[in-house]
Amino acid sequence: MRQKARHLEPEAQVDETLNRYRESIDNIDAALVFMLAERFKVTQAVGEYKATHDLPPADPGREERQITRLRQLALDAKLDPDFTEKFLRFIIDEVIRHHEQLREG
């Protein structure tokens, strides 16, 4: 493929490179969606367990431990830990909302 790219005009090489990057991004986005779907399947089961055992929908201690752990993972991965925390908090808030709905019946 690289040999083919050498014979292309400079704009075509850029477009081909950009297309390869975009294909990778598309694959990563698809993986993220499937991972989130799997995560929410598990948190749904947790919510059902909590509802049947009269446990609170939220666990602030666990949430803080998770945020601390994932902030460190973000640093290790050279990803902005503030962004990581915002992303995780968004997910946690959605999970808690689901758990509250399950508890209410």
Automatic annotation (TrEMBL):
Q: Does the keyword Isomerase apply?
A: yes
Q: What is this protein called?
A: chorismate mutase
Q: Which InterPro entries match?
A: Chorismate_II_sf (IPR036263), Chorismate_mutase-related (IPR051331), CM_bact (IPR010951), CM_dom_sf (IPR036979), CM_II_prokaryot (IPR002701)
> What is the originating organism of this protein?
Sphingomonas bisphenolicum
TM segments?
Answer: none
Identify the keywords attached in UniProt to this record, alphabetized: Isomerase
Q: EC no.?
A: 5.4.99.5
Q: Which residues form the Chorismate mutase domain?
A: 12-103
* Stored NCBIfam families: CM_mono_cladeE (TIGR01795), PRK09239.1 (NF006691)
Would the keyword Isomerase be found if you checked this record's keyword annotation? yes
One Pfam annotation reads CM_2
Entry-linked SUPFAM superfamilies: Chorismate mutase II
